[in-house]
Amino acid sequence: MMSAYLGLSGEELLAQLTWIAAEGRMKSAAEYVKSRLPEVLKQHLQDYERDKENSVMSYQTILEQQILSIDREMLEKLTVSYDEAGTTCLIALLSDKELTVANVGDSRGVLCDKDGNAIPLSHDHKPYQLKERKRIKRAGGFISFNGSWRVQGILAMSRSLGDYPLKNLNVVIPDPDILTFDLDKLQPEFMILASDGLWDAFSNEEAVRFIKERLDEPHFGAKSIVLQSFYRGCPDNITVMVVKFRNSSKAEEQ
């Protein structure tokens, strides 16, 4: 699995960007997103912060534009090499008292608020969801079940970066869902960003309880929850990142 943590700092930029590019069918797509997306986001976010008051942009528009741009850029390269690789992408942008989360695919973010509640930060893009199913059907595609619901009998998520054969059919799209959260209201303790392997083994509430009990341990329980997922029979690769909000600005990953 591919994962990274990027801290952006400067006189005017005090944002932290945390993201996961989870491995799809092959590593090339995740590697490409990992190497390129933080770089371009950092530049655009710095430009935005320098002239924020006069800009027509926002964190949401920057995230959306650059995610779509990276997908177009990657598709050109993958198509030439006949590389059918694809990846999910989950980004959490922390600035001032807001948390902005962008998601493409079936990686998921969950936040633990001041009362210990599990707050979903993203929506999984799965073929069986009514909204996604209708969109796929309108594009002339279909979903089928063979152990799990798949687009065109191939892909177990309905949105991704890469996957050029399905992009050409327009049944799989790269459009992110972007949500914004008020941190003053939520007073979060920590958030979990993880690929779908974790969520196959843990519910949102179970994961929050598990991490909460281990916040003071090394790695904030990230390694422990990965191992527990394997013990529960998860056959998938797993990426987990735990970001602690109180008394620490570090992110721990496994």
TrEMBL record:
GO biological process terms held by the UniProt record: cell surface receptor protein serine/threonine kinase signaling pathway; MAPK cascade
Membrane topology: Single-pass type I membrane protein
Single GO molecular function: metal ion binding
Main localization, broad class: membrane
Residues covered by the PPM-type phosphatase domain: 1-245
Origin: domain of life: Eukaryota
EC number: 3.1.3.16
A Pfam family annotated for this UniProt entry: PP2C
Known cofactor(s): Mn(2+); Mg(2+)
PROSITE patterns assigned: PPM_2 (PS51746)
Gene Ontology CC terms, in alphabetical order: membrane
Family the UniProt entry places it in: Belongs to the PP2C family.
Chain's role: Acts as a suppressor of the SAPK signaling pathways by associating with and dephosphorylating MAP3K7/TAK1 and MAP3K5, and by attenuating the association between MAP3K7/TAK1 and MAP2K4 or MAP2K6.
Name of protein: Protein phosphatase 1L
Taxonomic source organism: Meleagris gallopavo (Wild turkey)
